[in-house]
Prior knowledge:
Layout: H1 2-10, E1 16-17, H2 21-27, E2 36-37, H3 41-49, E3 57-60, H4 66-74, E4 80-84, H5 87-98, H6 102-105, E5 108-112, E6 125-127
Amino acid sequence: NSYVEFCKAYSAIPYFERPSTEEAVQLGVPFRSLAAGEILFPSFCALVGDLEKGGTFLDLGSGSGRAAVAWALLQPTNRAIGVEIRPSLHQTALQAVGRLPPSVQRRLQLHLGDLFDFPLEGADVILVNST
């Protein structure tokens, strides 16, 4: 069950995380732009239900990876890519993905970097979710 796997991966990870002042200064990005509030699994299911099946999913500002993981779980033949600028959230995403079955892990790519520097080519669905 996709929801069970999702819950296992994220059982101890909060849905909202504020950046530290040091992190904001280090990244040179406004503090408010680094707050991470992520989509809930049922809401994401409803969103995906309105889309045609198939394709590569790209989450720009992926936080702890919830949307990318949900896509990979709900779309078992497709891949998901997440791009996150905050190293702490990127590490959290990698830990969550590590709790997933290998068949799901193989279809997930998580990148640490600026979403403005990431190529959009090859993505069929792009999510930019602002908290």
